[in-house]
Amino acid sequence: METENKRANSWRRVALISMLVALVAICALVITNMGRPDNPGAKPPAAPKDILASWNDCESRNAFTSYIEAITKKDSPDFIPVEDRIAVFDLDGTLFCETDPGYFDHMLYYHRVTEDSNYKDKATEEEKRVAGVCKEYFDTRKYPAGLDVDHGKGVATSFAGMTLDEFYAYVKEFREQPANGYTGMKKGEAFYKPMLEIIQCLQANEFTVYVVSGTDRFIVRGLLKDSELNLPANQIIGSDSSLVATGQNGKDGLEYVLTDSDKVVMGGEFFIKNLKMNKVTAIMQEIGKQPVLSFGNSSGDSSMAKYVTKDNKYKSMAFMLCCDDLVRENGNTEAAEKMVKMCSENGWNAISMKNDWKTIYKEGVTRKS
After folding, report:
1. Which pLDDT value is given to residue 287?
2. pLDDT of residue 12
3. 271 φ/ψ angles, rounded to the nearest 5 degrees
4. Cα separation of 126 and 158, whole Å?
5. pLDDT of 369
């Protein structure tokens, strides 16, 4: 009898412990889910206005914060599920300095062909010609017709044979050089601080952020790797060139099988410049969903902005940066005015660098006079 009582008491203790463990697990689950957007009482992880410290109180900032508040509240008619919170950003002139004195990728190419002691004597006549056109662009600030494709081809051929790790290391070394027109900043540090805050706010509110750039995809990856904007490689879309195996020797990829001794290297063939309508098709192919937010700065981003805001089942918006600051940035009044007009005609939101931002770059950076 005593043995049976002991056994009963033992089972009671086991049952009680099991109930306590289950209760603790349920409480932990409830606490974990209290702040999630699928909870009716959930709040965004961070209020937008607390993150956007580099912004003045302005129309573009208020439009953005109102949007975030509307689409993250479960009971809002504009609520967007987390899996559909997708934002796409251009790079040059939108997140990163566009003219110092030219695009980062154009300066990288010019350095490769004319300054790199390990390559400049091997450069082809065509590569040198394109480098000369880049120099013309740097000097005049006017982008020559046809340079976008010619430059893409030049990047592909001049870096052919490099592994991606070697190429990323090359880009990283170049980005460590001092910025041409600024003090207190390296070439690879020229991120717009207010736009980094926009991305931080989006990520805090569970957006997936993509860079959709006209710059070569691998240059963008090398530029952003271990930077203030360290996005995963699969969230970086750009212009494309070929990759091949070291032993492939011109064979089609359908006819060649990778061997144990092969390395994958840059193949030297340029495929596509990711601008204008090409940005739209790249988004459809690589993301597979219509984004709800678009950020750009030029006519090259207009198709992306229209795609995001046209016939979207969710509340969507497009923002365009207007480089109108002639003191802190290499502004262009004429181009800024054209962009303001384009925004007005299309219902997009214009962001004034001059009026909307307290600062442009990180602390201690000044533009050379």
Report:
1. 98
2. 56
3. -105, -60
4. 10
5. 82
Nearest to 218 by CA among 168, 265, 169: 168
**Residues in the chain where the model's pLDDT stays below 50:** 1-4, 6, 8, 14, 17, 20-44
The two most distant CA atoms of the chain are separated, in Å, by 101
Q: What is the C-alpha to C-alpha distance for residues 206 and 45, in angstroms, rounded to an integer? A: 9
**Cis bond upstream, residue 101 (ω within 30):** yes
- Token couple for 115: 């300054």
Which amino acid, one-letter code, is at 7?
R
Identify residue 104 by its one-letter amino acid code: F
**Residue 148 and residue 23: Cα distance in Å, rounded?**
63
Euclidean distance between CA atoms 131 and 106, whole angstroms: 8
pTM above 0.85, yes or no: yes
What distance in Å separates the CA atoms of residue 184 and residue 308, rounded to the nearest whole number?
A: 37
Query: What is the pLDDT at residue 46?
Result: 58
Instruction: For residue 109, give both structure tokens.
Output: 């190419």
